[in-house]
Write a structure and sequence with these properties.
elongated; alpha/beta; 3 domains; Alpha-Beta Plaits; 4-stranded antiparallel beta sheet
Length: 344
């Protein structure tokens, strides 16, 4: 973890100032001894005299100021100023080293406390090309997440563009790391590491620790799909396979793809969301969900009896367990989730 940028620049400025002040004292001393010294001392002798005075080494006077009142007063001035500047340099260096270590320790402890307070969040295991996009989408739609990666440079690359992102440095296959990320209170885990075997172990570990959470795993080789599913993954995605389908769709149904792309890129962050109707809202019409607002639109309803119902009328009566496919903004999704929980 790196030191905060503002504090780091402040400490660097102090270091620069202290070294500049010390060099200025050395310069003044060298020139002063060259002017005040008897027998026309060399510049090297003057510099050496200044150095041993500041360093309090205590050798004999290289520049002879014996019996010379102004020369001795100048030596006292150089000694006091130099010792003061030397002490300031050493204290600034010490402060920089301590501040870096203490600040890193404090930030790590603070982050662990914030992670421990999370509920119903998501854990992204691996923040490479796929994982970084997963974490970005979660953040963009107002969902809390913790990222895990074994390489600090990978985490730093993501955190630099997403300040405030919670993260852990470690191996996501380790149960202790998953527990530190709050797997017991999480809503879901994304096993999106680069290696299929690692994603398999992450899926297995996450499900063993919390059987109720949902696990979505990345799988490169389709031969490993069934193994990963048996290990506990609820859903398996192959970027190569889905990427091929996406390319075909861009050719044969370009307007649909364009619509979905525009929706994902919109500044309002409108997304397709999935809402499950609780038993408490059974027998209620869809108008209960809208409340006259424009932050959501129900596109389809799926139930165990009739299957899919597309473009349902606002008078449609919903039943407990119905799954709604909703186009909503983050605010609309949050309002619907509160309604489902009986908060709104």
């Amino acid at each position: 973890m790196r030191v905060d940028g503002t504090n780091e620049s402040h400490v660097i400025r102090n270091l620069f100032f202290s070294f500049a002040a010390l060099l200025l004292v050395m310069l003044i001393g060298t020139v002063g001894y060259h002017i005040l010294g008897r027998s026309h001392p060399s510049w090297m002798d003057c510099f050496y005299m200044t150095f041993i005075t500041i360093a309090t080494i205590g050798y004999s006077e290289v520049v002879d100021v014996t019996g010379y009142e102004y020369g001795r007063l100048f030596t006292v001035f150089i000694g006091l100023a130099g010792i003061g500047m030397m002490g300031y340099v050493l204290s600034t260096i010490t402060a920089f080293m301590l501040e870096s270590d203490l600040n890193e320790s404090w930030r790590r402890k603070k982050m662990q406390q914030r992670i421990a307070q999370l509920k119903n969040h998501y854990i992204v295991c691996g923040v490479g090309l796929v994982g970084s996009n997963v974490a970005h989408e979660l953040t963009s739609t107002g969902r809390s997440c913790v990222i895990i990666d074994s390489k600090m440079e990978t985490i730093k690359r993501y955190v630099d563009s997403h300040p405030g992102q919670l993260y852990l440095l470690g191996d996501a296959t380790d149960n202790d790391v998953l527990l530190a990320a709050g797997v017991l209170s999480a809503r879901g885990v994304f096993a999106v590491a680069h290696d299929d075997s690692q994603n398999l172990v992450i899926s297995l570990s996450a499900k063993q620790l919390n059987p109720d959470l949902r696990v979505v795993a990345r799988c490169h080789d389709l031969k490993n799909t069934e193994k990963t599913r048996r290990a506990g993954a609820d859903e398996i995605v192959s970027p190569d396979f889905t990427g091929g389908l996406r390319i075909v769709s861009a050719m044969v149904r370009p307007h649909v793809v364009s619509f979905l792309d525009d929706m994902l890129k919109s500044e309002e962050n409108v997304r397709m969301e999935e809402i499950v109707i609780p038993v408490t809202l059974s027998g209620k019409p869809l108008t209960t969900l809208y409340h006259g607002g424009k932050d959501c639109l129900v596109l389809a309803i799926r139930n165990s009896v009739n299957g899919w119902l597309f473009n349902p009328p606002v008078q449609h009566i919903v039943q407990g367990g119905d799954v709604l496919m909703v186009m909503a903004s983050p605010e609309g999704r949050a309002r619907l989730e509160q309604l489902m929980q009986g908060v709104a």
